[in-house]
Amino acid sequence: MNRPDDNSTPHHPLQHYLHKMRGGGQMAPMVGVGEVFWSWLGAFLGIGLVGFLDARVFAPADLALIIGSFGASAVLIYGAPGSPLAQPRNLIGGHLISAVVGVMLFQELGAIPWLAAALAVSLAIAAMHLTRTLHPPGGATALIAVIGSERLHHLGFLYVLIPVGLGALCLLLVALLVNNLAPSRRYPVVWW
């Protein structure tokens, strides 16, 4: 039998299950000031571009170009550009697939928002896994399609193209330009 101070893995299934929750990995290392700067610059320019276009072009046309999940995409593509989850296939594919799933679930189950939300996020994750486009902000893109404003709901499947597709392409363009200015960065690691 394992003692509480024993570091070996427990043998009882419940103990083993609870033991896994202890963690034991290591924190990510600190990054240098240069990495902080490039992450900041990319996020500022990427979100700034999408926000500017939203305010000047899309809002007057009663459309939107900026959604909350783009903030999380900015963390990945500007803050961790080498991550497999930050690559163009994941950024664009993950958002588009999740948007389609979210709109479908809202249209079918919008009268039961909690169920539509749960299915939209869980099915978006499954679809991203199956298509090798896992991008965590995609879960938020699917959720926004369900819980978003009436303005977004009225877009229907246009939501997939504008704001999701076009906004993600704007973020990608900035990621290509800014990340490759940094001497220590190369983006993308892989396109497809």
Q: Could you describe the 3D structure shown?
A:
With 192 residues, this protein is an all-alpha fold. The protein has one domain (32-179). Helix content is 65%, strand content 0%. The protein is built from eight helices and no strands. It has helices spanning 13-19, 33-58, 69-79, 88-109, 113-131, 137-147, 150-155, 158-179.
What's the helix and strand layout?
Elements: H1 13-19, H2 33-58, H3 69-79, H4 88-109, H5 113-131, H6 137-147, H7 150-155, H8 158-179
Features:
mainly alpha; 8 helices; 0% strand
Short characterization:
The chain is mainly alpha-helical.
Tally of domains: 1
Are there runs of 5+ residues with pLDDT below 50, and where? none
Helical stretch count? 8
Could you give the order of the helices and strands? HHHHHHHH
Radius of gyration: 20 Å
Number of strands: 0
Structural class determined from secondary elements: mainly alpha
Helix content: 55-70%
Mean pLDDT: 93
Note the gap between the termini: 49 Å
Task: Give the overall shape.
Answer: flat
Strand content: under 5%
Main beta sheet: none
